[in-house]
## 1
Amino acid sequence: MAYQSVNPYNGKVLKTFEELTDKQLEKAIKTADSCFKTWQNNSFAERAAIAKNAAAIMRLDLDGFAKPMTLEMGKRIEEARGEVMLSADIIDYYAKHAETFLASEKLSPDAGEAMIESSPLGVLFGVQPWNFPYYQLARFAAPNLMAGNVVIVKHASCTPQCAIAFEKLWLDAGAPQGVYTNLFISHDQVNQVIDDPRIKGVALTGSLEAGKSVAARAGQNLKKSTMELGGSDAFIVLEDADLDKTVKWAVWAKMNNMGQCCVAAKRFIVVEALADRFLAKFEVAMAAFEAGDPMDKATTLAPLSTEGALLKLLDQIDNAIAHGAKLVMGGKRIARDGAFMQPTILTNIKPANPAFREEFFGPVALMFTVKNEEDAIALANDSDFGLGGSVFTQDIARGKRVASRIHTGMVFINQPTWTAPDLPFGGIGNSGYGRELSSMGIQEFVNKKLIRVASINKLASA
Ligand code: NAP
């Protein structure tokens, strides 16, 4: 497996990187471990000063960070710029709030004094995906570095230039060597790292398959882990939804990042009173996308991240159709250079069709028509995933009632599931466990230590 930048717009190989030898890997872990010994003792203010520098550098050099994303995984340049800003916001958010989030908590036991203190664990290992090449890194690194941990990161093999840029960012911001370390390593070496006693926690964002492998390895080593995995989010449209606004959001929910989002809307579940009108408008809007250079601001349809991702998606579509799905539009690659996929809509997907349970990671919408709200909820919950979801209705109280009955980690009303530094992010079931972002994300890899002051004269009763 090579770490390689390939431009999915034209298939050109931009750069190839060597994997680390075991000796180099050992040196990297050793440096991180010795860095932790001092970093953990820095004050929040000292750590925050470095984090704030990092956020400022990202904002100042917006295109310097955005362009490698567009070149390596095809993200439209405007979306890439947005991701750089969001990543900077996440870093700033933890610089500002970490101390409050981790302040000692006084308990009120029946007798004596007690408190919970939060302390860092040590070197944490992150395994990260290509679809949001900086946001994912910021989401993992910022809270954990602010908590006093240090991190080592294996990024996806197709986004090595972003991986290097994010490591350099921390050094440029004034962090000592070993606070943030990028590792170009193989899957076997991922296991070696997890086994290493100096590694105190493991966080993966990626596919179900990667999650099962990494979580099992962490479990064998009794190491705390968080898993942010795939999803098949429902986008529920009730009969009282505002149709025009809902269709606009539906298109955004499907086409943002070319559908390569864990929380992209993947199953559109529309009550029959609105279904035909929704589909007609949705189809027109999906047909309006035009392929072009993602570096050009005017382009609306970018390539998928890699040729391999495109081939996988085409295979899933063929398989869905072979099992009875009806192709409403698209379904093919676009006849031009690059990993371009037609916006696609499939209907008539029955439970026996493999497509019913799979994650489609691209511009492919699975459309379902249901009788009513009750059936919409039942269908939304008939999934092994449990990441996000959304409900569209003009009756907010109704939206909240429906949201409460959806079995996922996040449900948005009248907006597709999305992210902000102060909102927790994560799922249940095959979408994983643990939360990133908000006050919750910083609590995952700290020791919640009880400190108890008791009367020396009193024996503890059983
Ligand atoms: P992926 O193939 O699982 O890769 C993710 C990371 O895991 C990469 O660094 C990859 O390295 C590594 N990896 C894969 N298999 C591994 C194994 N057996 N052992 C060790 N490391 C392994 O996922 P992806 O295609 O990059 O990302 C898309 C998936 O991530 C989708 O399912 C999406 O829904 C999910 N995702 C979830 C969230 C969330 O927050 N829940 C956010 C974003 C994405 P290589 O590149 O070297 O193979």
## 2
Amino acid sequence: MSSSPDARQELRAIRGMPDILPAQTPAWQYLERCVTDVLGGYAYREIRLPLLEPTELFARSIGEVTDIVEKEMYSFPDRNGDGMTLRPEGTASCVRAVLQHGMLQQLPQRLWYMGPMFRYERPQMGRQRQFHQVGVETFGLEGPDIEAEHLVMTARLWRRLGVADRVRLEINSLGSTASRAAYRSALVAYLSAREAELDEDSRRRLASNPLRILDSKNPATQALLRDAPRLTDHLDAESAAHFAELRSLLEAAGLSYTVNPALVRGLDYYGRTVYEWVTDSLGAQGTVCAGGRYDALVAELGGPATPGVGFAMGLERLLLLMQAAGTSAGVDVAPHAYWVLADAAAPRLALALGEQLRDALPWLRMQLNCGGGSIKSQMKRADRSAAVLAIIVGSDEIAANEVSVRELRSEGSPQIRVGVSALRAFLAERFTSVTT
Ligand code: ATP
Ligand code: MG
């Protein structure tokens, strides 16, 4: 290609916003189907939310001093000058929607959503600027039984996807707003006395969002935190009882977990339970699913005080995990049959017969040769389509009111003749489908 200055610039997708190509979509569809099945099995209902929301919604819900709001949002004024943001997550939109549509008058609500999210981050494996999440939000449930339900439900999904042995569960409790405030003071007192030893990010957070220092990746800061006051020791009695009950429910369900006292999550709206499903298979991008309780958020956004619990999982990371586990093959989308049309009258016959077969066997995947060509070149295309069978219609076949059928995936199988009226039964028998 020319590299002269006036050469036309090649048009490319935005960095970190990759296309998902036909070779990849079967794995996506498989993952999406598994998610839909599992969530449906617990009677969760889907909600579809817009990709664009008023910027204020995210600033108010996620918190001003968070990674997302400080540096990751795609925000811009629209043509009217109103501040718009491409959604960086789904919880805020979901709360906005349930409020707007009066859905909190019918509690509890168990909802899920799926789709792209946008964050301005440094793209790398498992981290993109447009990525996809499945999120679950429930409203109106106070007890830890709902957290337990979310966790057994996600554990079931991991088993269904074949990645259960690659993820582990970490949980923590952030306590009530009051107990968190008391803990914050204790932590700030401890860290202020050692401010010189803190990394720069943590020093900045000391004033703005000190709890986030707990999940600093800096080794020196982590060493300093080993003797710091612990959130778990500052829990109020009710939060402690809530956490103990959750732990006992998880144990009864046979779900193993570890308590990670440094787990605080990056969003402001969490209180009490927080958790992450983490993996060692994806390097630094180790969190595949994260969530917790957010009892204050609905009121924060102007609604009636309503408990909320939710989580979101990253689909790209789950697909990478499935790939690592060798379970990402997904569904077979190759045609069952490729029609080789070797006579001028063949397309007419194949179109009509093809439609009859599709009526009778709706699950059948057939590709008709378009654009003519010799038998040889059509057979080559049939082979490249990955079809299982070639159905060949030539002048001999038409004269005999038959088609020829050849197996394409087994070496040396004979070509056989099948009567046009017997083709439907033949295909039904050859490809037994669960839906027939
Ligand atoms: P991280 O610490 O990896 O940045 P996060 O705490 O910002 O994650 P959440 O806001 O909790 O992530 O989002 C839930 C899940 O969405 C994450 O656990 C992850 O699987 C996925 N996710 C978040 N950001 C991205 C991204 N930029 N690219 C791909 N997946 C992402
Ligand atoms: Mg992040």
